Amino acid sequence: MTVAPVAARPGASTPGRRRRGVNLRGAAFVVGLVLALEVGTAVLGSRFFPPPSRIAVALVEQLADGRLASALLETVLSVAGGLAAASVVGVLVGLLLGSSDRLYAVLRWVIEFLRPLPSVSLVPFAILLLGVGPTTTIAAAAYAALWPVLFNTYYGVRDVNPVAIDSARTFGLTRAEVLRRVVLPLALPGILTGIRVASAIALVLVITVELLTAAGGVGYFISFMQSAIRVPEMYAGVLVVGVLGYLIALGVQALERRLLFWNRPGGDR
What we know:
Layout: H1 24-44, H2 52-65, H3 67-99, H4 101-114, H5 123-130, H6 134-158, H7 162-170, H8 175-213, H9 217-227, H10 231-259
């Protein structure tokens, strides 16, 4: 006896298909948290914990004034510059190290020495070398963000099936063509994972350097408002950093979906 297939209803969800749309539970949690903070701060009445409504007013005022918008632009440019430099260098070096055991053996001690060094501890050296300014901020962010990209690229290359490489060489591809047409696409999921991790690290380092050097950006804005005891404005700067980190994460996820369309569960396109 044969069983007739059951047609799926239009709009019905299928296993493995990614649901898209508004995260209602997450939005409800955020709204509830804001309301709880509003009520709690009103009851406690502490000047160091202003209600979210005052922070929102301060945020709008500072954005309209242009000071916070200008600081935000400086921070975004520094994060973008550091992440771009780390991505380019990390992918290139990771590809070379992953495809050459001899080169990795030569550079392994240097890499293992530099990787554990806290990036913040190198800020004084960067200031002596580059001075106080955007160059130092970008360099510190690039150094910190380099390692996730480099090692995710390295392990992505090492995980490529040797049969795929041998097959490509059988068809007459050169070493460079094998790297570009076989190894790089197969290692791309790991590379993008490293870039996603590096984007958060770059933001943290940029804000940290701005706080330490007072060279501008949202970090300096937060530090200045804290020293001036303008608490709502200080929290407005902190809120901007959180929103910026969230938007950067969304941007990297969108890049992953665009580049890895062939690697989605359930064939979702």
